[in-house]
Amino acid sequence: MMYQNIIKSAKMLVDEANTIVDTITIEEAKNKINDNNYIFVDIRDFRELQKEGKIPGAFSCPRGMLEFWIDPESPYHKDIFNQNKTYIFYCASAWRSALAGKISIEMGLRPVLHLKGGFNAWKESNANIEDVD
């Protein structure tokens, strides 16, 4: 017996977010890795970073803190989200990053992209990975 009537699936939410947040391909992202006009934001859980590493130079922002770190009125605000740069969000497989990108855009953060295929695609392309302690 189902007690709840979920009317919007996680897939529907991700699909909706993908109509709002533009993606950047792995190859395009590789060309931006050393470009100071771009900030890579890893929204995976810290345990994922410790286990698999991250894109070199990426800023770690757990998905659960994103809105609080973006909001300048929040006691948790991080200055990294107050720069005139392009933010590239990524997670493991580009689902959480689509949702993170959508909420960031709704909050007013711009420009925002998310990495097509996520960190899994980054690894598969044999791109550089930075270890996380």
Task: Describe the model.
- The protein is α/β, with parallel strands linked by helices.
- It has one domain: Rhodanese-like domain (Oxidized Rhodanese, domain 1, 3-Layer(aba) Sandwich), CATH 3.40.250.10.
- 35% of the residues lie in helices and 14% in strands.
- It is built from 6 helices and 5 strands.
- The chain has helices at 10-18, 26-32, 46-52, 66-70, 96-107, 118-124, and strands at residues 22-24, 38-42, 59-60, 86-90, 112-115.
- A 5-stranded parallel sheet has the order 1-5-4-2-3.
- The longest helix has 12 residues, at 96-107.
- The radius of gyration is 15 Å and the shape is globular.
- The termini are far apart.
- The mean pLDDT is 97.
